[in-house]
Automatic annotation (TrEMBL):
One of its GO terms (biological process) is cobalt ion transport. Probably part of an ABC transporter complex. Responsible for energy coupling to the transport system. Part of an ABC transporter complex. Responsible for energy coupling to the transport system. It comes from Methanospirillum stamsii. Keywords: ATP-binding, Cell membrane, Membrane, Nucleotide-binding, Translocase, Transport. This is ABC transporter ATP-binding protein. It is a peripheral membrane protein. Residues 5-240 form the ABC transporter domain. Belongs to the ABC transporter superfamily.
Amino acid sequence: MKSLIEIQNISYCYSQNSPAIHKINLSIQSGEKIALVGSNGAGKSTLLLTLNGMLEPKKGHISFQGTPISYDRRALRIIRQKIGFVFQDPDVQIVAPTVWQDVAFGPTNLDYPEDKIREVVQEALRKVGLEGFDKRPPYHLSGGEKKRVAIAGVLAMDPEVLILDEPTSMLDPAGSEDIMDLLDELNHQGKTIIISTHDVELAYPWADRIILMENGGIIASGTPENAFSDKELVKRARLKTPILLELCQELAARGIKNGGRLPTTVLDIIRIIENEHHGTIRLSENGYGIIHVGDVDLQSGEKVNALVKKMHHDTIGVMGSRAKICARQWGINPDISYAVIDKCILQAMNGKSSLILTTAGMVSRVIERVTHFNQTNNRSIPVQKIISEDPTG
Ligand SMILES: Nc1ncnc2c1ncn2[C@@H]1O[C@H](COP(=O)(O)OP(=O)(O)OP(=O)(O)O)[C@@H](O)[C@H]1O
């Protein structure tokens, strides 16, 4: 990973108020998934707004790809294309009367030619799972759909970094999971993602790195396990320890060791408990359940549907925006649509079979993740591709 954004000693204050952020130093690497976590007023939004030049620090410097950000109109246009910003409230961001026009707004302002605008808008809508929404007026959309329109508007300019201020505020649990899953997918496609949130349960399993903020400053930066391990810091930030970490701390206090790795998922906790009880915990009589994984783009909906009906998996998981749309259109109702791989591994450890429907790049990700789990935990959960190319096209 190479350094993308360097923040050196920046401070910002609104009018005569005390600084909203002060003496912030931070280095952001290409490909990271970062969550700024802090309570109300900690300075998260202010810091995010400085990253793409929407606010100019009163002190200090910010560089992007080794070049200091400058604040003339031309330079700002470029930086805002490279570092896209999705506001907390999509109604602030959505300006046009139709979804298509709204997503085309950025590329049009960047003077893209007509056919390129068509291409990038189509691609952005496809990525966020809003194909076919072109003519819809944004004000008739649900909160989650509006959020996707705002994300598509930013993606249409092909930024390197995507910043999202409170990406799941105002969304229901399923809508929140969908957005976090989309952010994972975009990160997997190479985007650096930075979010702000005060929801520790959301940030903890999702982020590669947590930056804890309090009173305008950074008080911790590290892996989620490390950043949240210091109870004093968590208290100082007026936050809560994520429940999985608290559970692990309670288990440790009772002599149950974590095997050198703190848990970030339910699967990690089960692994800790299983290791402790090795040989005595109840495992399925049938051994491990199989995990099948299929690429929805390789076969028609009719054939995938027939396969799903024939194979009778205990659990159907759908991963990624495109696979979710296909499943919906084909009348396949998934049991899980977030943290799908881990949940299917849990099912497999319980002797249950599962099918994960996804798209090309993610198929190898599923196989790698299960294989890695097998290797590091001395398991042999079978994982297999099942949908092959349709020779009839
Ligand atoms: N436009 C503004 N004018 C004046 N003060 C502001 C403005 N925006 C934020 N502040 C102040 O700056 C400080 C940091 O606010 P900021 O919105 O960056 O925090 P935050 O961590 O994003 O909070 P929240 O989670 O509530 O959105 C707060 O004291 C806030 O009152």
